[in-house]
Amino acid sequence: MKIIKYFKLFCVLVCGFAVVSCSQKTLLPVADLGKVKPLTEEQQLKKQLFFSEAMRSYELYDWEAAKSLFVGTISIDPGCDACFYKLAVIYYRSGYIKEALSLSQSSVRLDTENIWYRVLLAQLYATSGQFSDAINEYQYVLTQRPNMEKLYFDISSLYLRVNQVDSALATLQLAEEKTGYSEPIAGARYEILNALNRHQEALDELEYLVQKFPEAHYFTLLGEQYSAMQQDSLAIQKFEQALLIDADYMPALFGETDSYRRQGDFDVFFQKFNTICEKESVEKKYKIEYIAAMLEIPQFSHTFAAQLDTVFTCLRTPSDSLTEPLYATFLMQNAKPDSAEIVLKNNVFNNYNNEDAWHRFLAIEYFLNHWSALNLYANEAHRVFPENVDFIMLNAIALWQTQKEKEAIEWLEKALPLSKELKQQIQIYAFLGDLYHAQNNSKKAYENYEKVLAADSANVMVLNNYAYYLSEENAQLDKAYSMSKKAIEVEPNNATYLDTFGWILYKMGKPIEAKAIFRQAMIYGGKDSAVILDHYGDVLNALGEKDTAMVYWEMSIQKEPSVEVSAKIKEANTK
Predict the structure, then answer these.
(1) 414, 419, 403, 453: which is closest to 433 by C-alpha?
(2) Residues 337, 364 contacting (CB under 8 angstroms)
(3) At the topology level of CATH, where does 482-575 sit?
């Protein structure tokens, strides 16, 4: 009858604690040694029931129930150190570090000798950034368990966090004295020395380690260490020793190959790399990444075009969406854009639902100015990927370049609701502004430019274009002046922007100031633009420098024949 009575009481209390846990935030208990008193027999039984149920919930990862039950156990026995410990674990695993730390401190306060309580407290101190406190806790545990190797690593790691490198190394030395020489200790010591650029000490550590444990991994580390010290011949020896142990060990394969490259022995380099390419044990993505890195080296692609072509012959397969784009890059570097176009086109057809494949193919059509093809394939890419705004914009560019501004505008208007990024929306508004201006719709053009500047007041391209178009209309020249001035402040060496600013000054009746700006534009490439040369001629003519103006107008015609400029020359000659 007594057990039944307690069981009923237990059920009531459990339900009560569950309600507290769900309905309001449970106050964390704190150990108070003054409240710890011997329990009566009845309290002992109640505690046992609560704690057993709490542990059952804990093992089932029912954290909320476990928390309530552990708190309930503590209300019966304030000295339940295991309850505080388990609560600390729950809060720690749930990401509540501050609460876990408080609970862990309580568990240690109640039982100062329990090393697992101390270990958890050390971990929580470390997580909280209290590294010195963490070290102290670990050091205490170490006095109780001197052969517990993991503790030495934890302490060493903490010393590194507070920049006490010598203490970190000393801790590893102590570990070796207590537990004997081991791979983890030697490996940790090597990592520290290497990170500190103490290469010779790191090398000595590895040389001894590889004697004790002759494994491919350690020989490879030795090879990498010699490579870092620019001793490639020794590096190759170590990589070869690693490959004798494991012929397919990828770090050693690439390490040896790259050592020959650094030595300048490219015959052996390509021989080794071709061997890697033929190995099915090496994932293709690593082969591709290595070749991609090589293609980033200036002149490498040109100098070793024949060897690289052999490499690609080994790597390429028709449906390979990794290799084909890289092969196209190689072809572009070797001035074979038409071949690159064919490769990327086939790559699309072999990987029709690969968005990146479409991106790359459309990019080369854009690069080659194949506007009709870009229009055709951007339409198809949009059909396959209707949410991709880039494909819509590429199609709009193609339409613009084929004088189909109205259709381009329709496509861009379609892109706006799909665009989620402000940067992309700004690009669309700027593009719309240019298109509307091309249709002689200044009102709509300027509305879109204003939208750009509202979001990005320093957009130099729009500032320049907007200002230039206003100057061409002789409208709002003060506003045009302010915008153009802002553009050249951002890019003072841009000949196009300088031309706009100088042209506005000319339109405002300030040819002397305009001349100074145009002289600057000439320095930064203005002589390559027929428009800028023509403008400069107008400014010089306004200043009465007719002969010099004639020179610049003639230079303009040589760049780009113009009826208007020819008329200016004829008129000047008749005066």
Answers:
(1) 453
(2) yes
(3) 1.25.40
8 A C-beta contact, residue 527 and residue 498: no
Assigned token pair, 109: 């306060």
Can you give the pTM of this predicted structure?
A: 0.66
Amino acid at 433: G
Say which amino acid occupies 218: Y
Distances (CA, A) of 206 to 167, 211, 227, 247, 440: 21, 9, 14, 21, 74
- Cα 226-228-234 angle, rounded to 5 deg: 20
- What DSSP string runs through 4-52? HHHHHHHHHHHHHHHHHHHHSPPPPP---GGG--PPPHHHHHHHHHHHH
Contacts of 527 (CB under 8 A, 6+ apart): 533, 555
Report domain extents, the chain: 1-111, 482-575
Place of tokens 């020249």: 477
Write the DSSP string, 390-457: HHHHHHHHHHHHTT-HHHHHHHHHHHGGG---HHHHHHHHHHHHHHHHHTT-HHHHHHHHHHHHHH-T
Residue where the block lists tokens 């196009």? 496
Q: How would you label 441-469 residue by residue, b for 16+ Cβ within 10 Å and e otherwise?
A: ebeebbebbebbbeebeebbbbbbbbbbb
- Residue given tokens 């020794």 in the structure block: 234
pLDDT of the chain, 575 residues: tens digit per residue:
333 333 333 333 343 333 333 333 456 787 677 677 888 888 889 989 989 999 999 999 998 999 999 999 998 999 899 999 999 999 999 999 999 999 999 999 999 999 999 999 999 999 999 999 999 999 999 989 988 888 888 888 888 888 888 888 888 888 888 888 888 888 888 888 888 888 888 888 888 889 998 999 999 999 998 998 889 999 999 999 999 999 999 999 999 999 999 999 999 999 999 999 999 899 999 999 999 999 998 789 999 999 999 999 999 987 888 899 999 999 999 999 999 999 999 999 999 999 999 999 999 999 999 999 999 999 999 999 999 999 999 999 999 999 999 999 999 998 999 988 899 999 999 999 999 999 999 999 999 999 999 999 999 999 999 999 999 999 899 999 999 999 999 999 999 999 999 999 999 999 999 999 999 999 999 999 999 999 999 999 999 999 898 999 999 999 999 899 888 888 888 76
Give me 253's structure tokens.
């394969």
The answer to whether domain 1-111 and domain 482-575 are alike in fold is yes
What CA–CA distance (Å, rounded) separates 123 from 121? 5
CATH number 3.50.50.60 given to 1-111: no
**N-to-C CA span, the chain:** 129
User: Where do the DSSP E strands lie in 138-212?
Assistant: none
